[in-house]
């Protein structure tokens, strides 16, 4: 994929629906009684994997020109899968659905692509096993493929060693099928979309600090859901608007949940000119973001902010390479177990462009402001790496191409069309 050069980015853009919220809307809609209507659903490959898994368990899910209708059958309404459940590339599908499957009365198997087959699943197997679940990694390596024989579960309190919404959500979802109140404490608060949406569907989820608890056997009722724009997808246009000279971009209806908005705080620290308009704090908070070209400087990103921007770190690394001064990213070991090892992959590719970047055990150090040249970038089929380097390609000297650049379809199928639509 060759990246075209663009100058003076101008215009308005509505990024696709939030990936985390789209997954949850399909899952919880399937477990609710009645028809859940989802608008602005993300039709990326990951969320389509979630739809396909629930269809295989007897849930009728219609797609009417992008509006999704989930004909849910209630908490106990799933049926034994007609086939192996294919989660594709999706960590969210795998980890959340495992919590649901652990409490069913049938056996299921999950498989997926090479990337998901090397990502850690012990983090969900450990709490599920302590709830009495029967979950095994078929190859014995604590990865997908998984076999889950559902049966009644015990309520637990789980002290999670990682700040992971996928782990937290897995335990809370299993908790719906358990014999008491199940709770999870995480070291730092991760995204809280599960808590917000389960309550909206009628469950009793309470949150206090970094602990979330759920009452079992909720009656979930179908809902109308409008998915906000994904701040993780908006990140690429925020960076492009800030870095490409002479730009002004209005991003409409972006999710700004405080458990996801760390990128905006880091951009501000780096000297960004971003104005929030039409802020709406009902349910999942949203705003329009007006982004103007700014001269950026380095910053330090670490501690409690990390889970709120974990998926945006590839984009932050590229921004840091174009900013003046040093950026330190730390406390982000989780980057090693994402769709690729994002510490190594960002360091390798930014170095190829001539950037001064040193990978560390839990992040990276970038001395920004050096002129960067074009290169052949390897995305390692990681959608967020590909999109981050597409933005780098607008700014560097000479041509930049991305191996496996069409992996953007995982979370943003129209990414290149939307990007090129803004430029001159
Ligand atoms: C997600 C949680 C995050 C994030 C992922 C989506 C979710 O993963 O990186 O892209 O939808 O819950 P972890 O919870 O493993 O940090």
Automatic annotation (TrEMBL):
Subunit structure: Monomer.
Role this protein plays: Catalyzes the transfer of the enolpyruvyl moiety of phosphoenolpyruvate (PEP) to the 5-hydroxyl of shikimate-3-phosphate (S3P) to produce enolpyruvyl shikimate-3-phosphate and inorganic phosphate.
Location within or outside the cell: Cytoplasm
Domain Enolpyruvate transferase: residue ranges: 4-419
Organism per entry: Blautia segnis
Functional pathway: Metabolic intermediate biosynthesis; chorismate biosynthesis; chorismate from D-erythrose 4-phosphate and phosphoenolpyruvate: step 6/7
The family this protein is said to belong to: Belongs to the EPSP synthase family.
Keywords: Amino-acid biosynthesis, Aromatic amino acid biosynthesis, Cytoplasm, Transferase
PROSITE patterns assigned: EPSP_SYNTHASE_1, EPSP_SYNTHASE_2
Keyword Plastid belongs to the record: no
Annotated InterPro entries: Enolpyruvate_Tfrase_dom, Enolpyruvate_Tfrase_sf, EPSP_synthase, EPSP_synthase_CS, RNA3'P_cycl/enolpyr_Trfase_a/b
Alphabetical GO biological process terms: amino acid biosynthetic process; aromatic amino acid family biosynthetic process; chorismate biosynthetic process
EC number: 2.5.1.19
Enzyme class: transferase
UniProt name for this protein: 3-phosphoshikimate 1-carboxyvinyltransferase
Main location: cytoplasm
Gene that this polypeptide is encoded by: aroA
Pfam families referenced in this protein's UniProt entry, alphabetically: EPSP_synthase
Active site positions: 311 (proton acceptor)
Residues noted as binding phosphoenolpyruvate in the record, renumbered to the chain: 19, 91, 119, 166, 342, 384
Family annotation (NCBIfam families): aroA
Residues annotated as binding 3-phosphoshikimate: 19-20, 24, 164, 166, 311, 338
Record field: catalytic activity: 3-phosphoshikimate + phosphoenolpyruvate = 5-O-(1-carboxyvinyl)-3-phosphoshikimate + phosphate
């Amino acid at each position: 994929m060759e990246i075209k050069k663009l100058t003076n980015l101008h215009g308005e853009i509505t990024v696709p629906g939030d990936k985390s919220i789209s997954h949850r809307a399909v899952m919880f809609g399937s477990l609710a009684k009645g028809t859940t209507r989802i608008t602005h659903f993300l039709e990326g490959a990951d969320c389509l994997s979630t739809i396909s898994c629930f269809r295989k368990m007897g849930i009728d899910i219609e797609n009417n020109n992008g509006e999704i209708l989930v004909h849910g059958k209630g908490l106990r309404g799933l049926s034994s899968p007609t086939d192996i459940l294919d989660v594709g590339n999706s960590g969210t599908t795998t980890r959340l659905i495992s919590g649901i499957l652990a409490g069913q009365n049938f056996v299921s198997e999950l498989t997926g692509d090479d990337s998901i087959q090397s990502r850690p699943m012990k983090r969900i197997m450990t709490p599920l096993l302590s709830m009495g679940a029967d979950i095994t990694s078929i190859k014995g390596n604590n990865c997908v493929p998984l076999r889950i024989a559902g049966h009644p579960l015990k309520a637990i309190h789980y002290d999670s060693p990682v700040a992971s919404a996928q782990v937290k959500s897995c335990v809370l979802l299993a908790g719906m099928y358990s014999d008491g109140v199940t709770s999870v404490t995480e070291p730092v608060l991760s995204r809280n979309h599960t808590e917000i949406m389960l309550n909206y569907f009628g469950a009793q989820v309470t949150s206090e600090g970094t602990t979330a608890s759920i009452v079992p056997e909720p009656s979930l009722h179908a809902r109308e859901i409008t998915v906000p724009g994904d701040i993780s997808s908006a990140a690429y246009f925020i960076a492009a608007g800030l870095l490409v000279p002479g730009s002004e971009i209005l991003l409409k209806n972006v999710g700004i949940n405080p458990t996801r908005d760390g990128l905006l705080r880091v951009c501000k620290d780096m000297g960004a000119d971003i104005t929030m308009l039409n802020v709406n704090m009902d349910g999942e908070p949203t705003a329009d973001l007006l982004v103007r070209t700014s001269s950026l400087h380095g910053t330090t990103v670490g501690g409690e902010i990390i889970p709120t921007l974990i998926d945006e770190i590839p984009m932050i690394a590229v921004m840091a390479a174009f900013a003046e001064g040093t950026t330190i990213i730390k406390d982000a070991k989780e980057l090693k177990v994402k769709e690729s090892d994002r510490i190594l992959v960002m360091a390798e590719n930014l170095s190829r462009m001539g950037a001064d970047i040193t990978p560390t055990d839990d992040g990276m150090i970038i001395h920004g402001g050096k002129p960067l040249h074009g290169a052949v970038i390897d995305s390692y089929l990681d959608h967020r790496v590909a999109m981050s380097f597409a933005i780098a390609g607008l700014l560097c000297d000479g041509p930049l191409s991305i191996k496996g650049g069409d992996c953007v379809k995982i979370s943003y199928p129209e990414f290149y069309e939307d990007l090129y639509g803004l430029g001159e």
